[in-house]
Amino acid sequence: VRVQFLIDAVLITWLVRGTGDLISPYITLYIILICVAGFYLGKSDVHIVAAMCALSFAALSLLSSQSLTYSFSGDVAPSRAVQITAFNIAAFLLVGLLAGRLAERRGLGAKLERAEADFADLNVLHERILSSINSGLITTDLQGKIRAFNRAAEDLSGIRAGDAIGKSVLTI
Cα–Cα–Cα angle for 162, 166, 169, nearest 5°? Predict the structure, then answer.
């Protein structure tokens, strides 16, 4: 996937160079590439893609402004060329930071989903263990509310679990 993003950055640079250098309408494709990287890559990889796009555009701008290659953008004043280049590089890096945050949150969301699934599995195991114990067992939270009330506790107390769970142990 990383190689694909590298190839995409090179292709975008080639397209921008062929369609107007500094005034190309396809400069926006760099931003789209960085955003897509936020969905597929990790935070540090997204930052690398953003830096790679910024460096590619900076190199292209430098080559076309120094007349080292033929420029399709025509005569752009040096001050205007610096302004366009700086604005676009700043945009690439800012979008890279935001896409990196998106990638980070996506990763945290996946970890949270795994933790929730693990907790649900542990809760089922807990309930099965409680129901299989022959001794009366009641569990409470720190405030004294009943959270578990097994069948043996029902038989000993004469109180149904549904009536006890969620109430204070002192009341029951």
Answer: 100
